Amino acid sequence: MKKILVTGSNGLLGQKLADLIIGSGRAELICTAKGANRRPEQQGCTFVSLDITDARATEDVLAVFRPDVIINTAAVTNVDACELDKELCRKVNVEAVANLVNAASRHDIHLIHLSSDFVFDGLNGAYAEEDAPSPVSFYGQSKADAEKLVLSSDARCSIVRTILVYGVTPGMSRSNIVLWVKSALEKGEQIRVVNDQWRMPTLAENLAEACLLIAEKEALGTYHISGAEMMSVFELAERVADFWGLDRSLITPVSSDSLNQTARRPLKTGFVLDKAILDLNYKPRSFIEGLAVVDRQLASLQS
């Protein structure tokens, strides 16, 4: 049985990985995050507070626990915040990854690093793994730079690029597109949603399962992991409204330029999933099936 260390375990993907690994018993689990454990009641994992921007602390934790695999889910993912605070973005998204790469190399650990569709410019989606990155934001550049660090190392490494992850879990620190649309419409709020950006939204459970499969199969290199359906963000919002029986007339379609956001976004990303399907037997749920998963989990949290 492999020993897996997850960074960013307080986040959505980190928690889904913990739930999957503990629930399935497929690996021994060490959870790490900056700050306190948001789910101290959870049994089945060893939690260690770890700031991966601290090279010495990272080395010490890995030397003590000697995991077979690191799954790095920790990152600054707010695209506009990265544009405004480039130093923090680079420290967490690039320099911390260098710490993990160096330690993984020294201790012969398989490093699985999470990346993003924002490494692409959005002019030629859907993208395959071998397509060249061409980011249009500082966030995207930070993820592309981290990928270069990972791929140029002599460590055993995998990169998992993903798109617009959604889901729900206890103790969440931030929302996501599905929960934001649902919450706003339930309050009767008018929302403006872009109709010229296209994505393949990813259920967090599907992403967690793919990461664990990569760990188990020791699948090295780059993998694209997302949902299988391409849709505009506006269409996504309409589907959320329809699923929960909410008023879709509250959703106003707008262009990206009209939002005057700090950072540029790629217009059409999306992934070719053939490699993940062939190598990993990856089977993403449909978007409607994903919304049903979220609905059941919300009901469970509220009961």
What would your notes on this structure say?
41% of the residues lie in helices and 18% in strands. By secondary structure, it is an alpha/beta fold. Strands 3-2-1-4-5-6-11 form a seven-stranded parallel β-sheet, with helices on both faces. A two-stranded parallel ribbon has the order 7-10. The two termini are 35 Å apart.
Keyword list:
alpha/beta, 7-stranded parallel β-sheet, single chain, 41% helix, 13 strands, 10 helices, two-stranded parallel ribbon, 303 residues
Condensed summary:
The chain has ten helices and 13 strands. It has 303 residues and is of the alpha/beta class. Strands 3-2-1-4-5-6-11 form a seven-stranded parallel beta sheet, sandwiched between helices.
List the helices and strands and how they pair.
Blueprint (H helix, E strand, L loop, with lengths): L1 E6 L4 H13 L2 E7 L12 E4 L5 H11 L3 E4 L6 H6 L1 H22 L2 E7 L21 H15 L4 E6 L2 E2 L10 H10 L4 E4 L3 E2 L2 E2 H14 L3 E4 L6 E2 H11 L7 E4 L19 H7 L6 H16 L1
Parallel strand pairs: 1-2, 1-4, 2-3, 4-5, 5-6, 6-11, 7-10, 8-13
Antiparallel strand pairs: 9-12
Helix pairs in contact: 1-7, 2-4, 4-5, 6-8
Share in helix: 40-55%
The gyration radius over C-alpha positions equals 19 Å
Helix/sheet category: alpha/beta
Number of strands: 13
What is the molecular shape?
globular
The oligomeric status of these chains comes to single chain
**What's the main sheet like?**
7 strands, parallel
* Average of the residue pLDDT scores: 97
SSE topology string: EHEEHEHHEHEEHEEEHEEHEHH
* Range of strand content: 15-25%
**Which regions have little confidence, pLDDT < 50, spanning 5+ residues?**
none
Main-sheet strand order equals 3-2-1-4-5-6-11
N/C terminus separation: 35 Å
